[in-house]
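Support request from a user on the community tier.

User writes: "When I paste my structure tokens into the form, the page sometimes reloads and wipes my input. The last time it worked, I copied everything first. Here is what I submitted, just in case something in the input itself triggers the reload:"
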């Protein structure tokens, strides 16, 4: 199962980018044997500053056709890492692609949110988008480790 993270904004060379690349690389290596991966990040940028609807159009174009769509949204479900791993495992068995969508500073436009198959919240606090990407990449890696039953996740 291929995983794509579609996010508004570009991360330049930074510690956050290095962390994301590290977690996604680890996920790919560990996931091959259990049917997970590859993983990629697609960044879109509303260069004209047209807002949420323009960002939603750019994000929609980046989502692979037929993909399960999972939004990161403050209104989403608060789930544990094992529950997230269970979702990933179910998607692995039922879908070819899963796409995680991270909107811009004003969130995800309502029409794109309504297309989501699932929505996740990282809590009631607001996180910078660059950290949300790192947190998502780590949770994707952790899900793979939970599915593979390695000792990485200690609960």
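"...and here is what came back when it finally went through:"
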């Amino acid at each position: 199962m291929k995983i794509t993270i579609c996010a508004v904004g570009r991360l330049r060379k930074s510690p956050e980018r290095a962390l994301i690349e590290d977690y996604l690389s680890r996920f790919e290596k560990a996931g091959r044997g259990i049917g997970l991966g590859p993983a990629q990040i697609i960044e879109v940028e509303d260069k004209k500053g047209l807002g949420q609807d323009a960002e939603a159009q750019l994000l929609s174009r980046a989502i692979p056709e037929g993909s399960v769509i999972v939004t990161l949204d403050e209104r989403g479900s608060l789930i544990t890492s094992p529950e997230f791993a269970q979702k990933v495992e179910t998607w692995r068995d039922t879908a070819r692609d899963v796409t995680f969508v991270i909107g811009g500073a004003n969130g995800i436009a309502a029409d794109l949110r309504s297309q989501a198959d699932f929505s996740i919240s990282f809590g009631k606090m607001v996180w910078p988008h660059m950290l949300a990407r790192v947190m998502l990449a780590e949770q994707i890696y952790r899900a793979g480790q939970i599915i593979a039953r390695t000792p990485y996740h200690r609960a």
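Agent notes: The reload is a front-end session timeout and is unrelated to the input. Residues 2-147 form a domain with the Alpha/beta knot fold (CATH 3.40.1280.10). The chain is about 40% helix and 20% strand. Escalated to web team.
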